[in-house]
Structures are given as C-alpha cells and as structure tokens.
Amino acid sequence: LKLLRALDLEDSAISKLPDCLVTMFNLKYLNLSKTQVKELPKDFHKLINLETLNTKHSKIEELPPGMWKLQKLRYLITFRRNDGHDSNWNYVLGTRVVPKIWQLKDLQVMDCFNAEAELIKNLGNMTQLTRISLVMVKREHGRDLCDSLNKIRRLRFLSLTSIHEEEPLEIDDLIATASIEKLFLAGKLERVPIWFNTLQNLTYLGLRGSQLQENAILSIQTLPRLVWLSFYNAYMGPRLCFAQGFQNLKILEIVQMKHLTEVVIEDGAMFELQKLYIRACRGLESVPKGIENLINLQELHLIHVSNQLVEGISGDGSVDRS
C-alpha cells in the first residue's frame, strides 16, 4: 500500500484510521467524507505528498498539529452539518484552526473553518486561495478580515457566517472582489456593501439574516452574470420591486421575509427567470404583481405561505401549503 496515491473511504463504516496510513508516503488524495472517523493520526503530517484532504460530514472537529508541513496540500474540505442544532442559524460547523495553517501558501480550497483572530490576521498569506468558507465570524474580525481578503486576488467563492444572527458582518472595506463568482453572507448587514455593484463575475449571491433596512436590489440588479439570487431574512422592508434588471437571473428565492407584503415585477425585469421560490413569507397575501411578465417561468414554489396567496394562483405551479 505504500505506492497508493488515492484512498477513497466515503460513506464507509469506519471509525478509526489504520496505523499504516501515515506510511503511505505517495498518497495524494484522501477522502473521509461521511465516515465516523473522529480524529486523524498525530503523525498525519508525514503524508508529505498529500494534495487533497476531504473530511466533509465526518466526526473530525480538529486537525492535528503539524498540518502546515503538508506543503503540497491544495484542497482542504472540512464542512460539517450540525444535525443537533436547536435553531436555523448554526447549521454549519467549522473545524478548529491549528497553528501555522496559514503557512500552506499553495492551498486553494479552505472549506470550512472557525474564524479565529490569528487565522484572520494571517489569511492573506494564502494568496492562492480560490475558495474560503468561514463560520463563527465576529464583528471585531472585520478590519483584519477585509485586509487579509484584499490580498487574495484569485478568490472565486467566499462564504462568511457570523457567530449568531444578530452579530453584524463588518465587510465594508473589501475591495478585491472582482474575481468572486459565488458569494454567501450569513449575518446582519447594517448597510448594503458599496462593493456589491463591482461583482461583475458573480453568478450566485446568497444573503441570509442580513436584516437590511435598505433595498439591496438597486446595487445588484445590473450584475451581468448573476444567475441565482437567494434572499433569506435579508430585507426588513414591506416591498420588493424588481425593475429593468437581472437580465440573466434564472433562480430567485425569497425566504422568511417577515415584513414583506408586496412583490412587484416590472416589465423587462428578470426576463430569463425559470424558478421562483417564495417560502415562509406570511405577510405576503397576493402573488407578485407583474408575474405574468416572467414569460420563461417554469416553476413556482409557494411553501409555508398564506392561504390568500395560494388562492391567488391560477395556472400551473408547485404549491405547498404546509
């Protein structure tokens, strides 16, 4: 097995790794996703040729010391769902940071880690990163986080989740955003970031718990490549108006907008929209005005909405009254 280059144990009923693992010096790919493994060997750093480590949905909460010695590591995937969470906020668990992990200067994917002060300050050393996912982000991290992210010019995917739903994300000072293709922000935003309209390569935008007092639509409606837009408790106003924009948008999700009473779609807006999801918007009692303008709409999903809204539907649609 010393010549083994790839080991895929995904979904296997394994809870402990064999001792011989650290002798597989040629190993480049290790997949432990969906296993019951709780820890990696202390000598894990001996796998000096490892390029990909995937512990997604395993039981591993912390990586062993010495990870920084794996200088060929490119992909570090540690995303875990929190199946025992008692709210709809902390549904994602990050991995605890190990010392000097920021010395992995060729790392491209870092998904997903707890935001800790030392990591935030040194994140900018990892200039080859294309994908970053951080949870447990605090307001006090804001300045250092922006400074570090501004040094990473190849970033295509950025996901930031605050420590709790009332903790603001301080990200106004981000400037290196031109390369970002997918952006997910979970946390309160006190204002619409001024750099939203610079996201010319953005294809997906997810805003969760933003609780914005101002409408973000004006800042993003002209983004030329935006295909998927998800608003989840993102806006506190009573009215959403889509006017003359979102020319390539194909999927729109409007979820848990507690104060929303009206959605307006003007002629020419969202011309390419194919799927519209409205969920848990109890104050919305009528279908979006101008929905007939969505001539390419193929799916309409109404989930946990008022009876009045459902009764206002005519024609085909996917309706869930529960």
From TrEMBL:
It comes from the Eukaryota. Residues 2-302 form the Disease resistance R13L4/SHOC-2-like LRR domain. It comes from Arabidopsis lyrata. Gene3D superfamilies: Ribonuclease Inhibitor. Keywords: ATP-binding, Nucleotide-binding, Repeat. GO terms for molecular function: ATP binding. This is NBS-LRR disease resistance protein. PANTHER family: LEUCINE-RICH REPEAT-CONTAINING PROTEIN 57, OS02G0478300 PROTEIN. GO terms for biological process: defense response; response to other organism.
